[in-house]
């Protein structure tokens, strides 16, 4: 008797994938060059233009984030400056905020789940601390500081348990933002190119693991 699973997936998941496959002609049509589509068909911009539809997204062509964002414009401005300090622009790729890292964090902390709500308290409190510390040291908001001044503050909070006791809470905030910034950045096409990640591509020749590796993992025949 079937247990409702097909190849390790439950029946509901299989049906979702079948429905996604049925939508494939529409997906392909959306990839046609300008002018090829019906000009009378209205466009529907995504609520998150950086999102990408997947087989598990209810709308492959117009992915929608079904919750309101929480962070204010001023909070996002400060957060973007911090993201760019964590991953600045260089000759290989743009800065983190140019790829929407701060918007990703806003989406993350706005999600209606308990762990994300805790992250929101941490991130919003950290942003308040960052601007207050900037004013205390340099008499200006974080976004108004020079790169050297921003770095001086973040040097005190970027080493986690090595931070001085008065900076421990701020270091937890920095650690969370650093993690989310890296997640946002390195899951974009530009971030993957920066890593040199090429994805699932055919190889001209496959070289199996050497015998010592197989022995190490217990797979030697």
Notes on the structure:
The chain has 9 helices and 2 strands. Helices cover 49% and strands 2% of the residues. A two-stranded antiparallel sheet has the order 1-2. The protein has helices at residues 11-22, 24-30, 73-86, 101-110, 114-138, 147-155, 168-186, 189-195, 211-216; strands spanning 5-6, 9-10. β1 (5-6) and β2 (9-10) form a beta hairpin. The two termini are 36 Å apart. The model is unreliable at 1-7 and 23-46 (pLDDT under 50). By secondary structure, the chain is mostly helical. It is globular. The chain folds into 2 domains: 1-43, no CATH class; 73-195, no CATH class.
Rounded mean pLDDT is: 80
Sheet with most strands: 2 strands, antiparallel
Return Rg in Å. Answer: 23 Å
Strand content: under 5%
Number of domains: 2
Q: How many strands appear in the DSSP assignment?
A: 2
Q: What percent of the residues sit in helical stretches (DSSP H or I)? A: 40-55%
Cα separation of the termini:
36 Å
What shape does the CA trace take? Answer: globular
Strand order, main sheet: write it out: 1-2
Summarize the structure.
With 221 residues, this protein is mainly alpha-helical. The protein has helices at 11-22, 24-30, 73-86, 101-110, 114-138, 147-155, 168-186, 189-195, 211-216; strands at 5-6, 9-10.
Helix and strand topology:
Blueprint: E1 5-6, E2 9-10, H1 11-22, H2 24-30, H3 73-86, H4 101-110, H5 114-138, H6 147-155, H7 168-186, H8 189-195, H9 211-216
Antiparallel strand pairs: 1-2
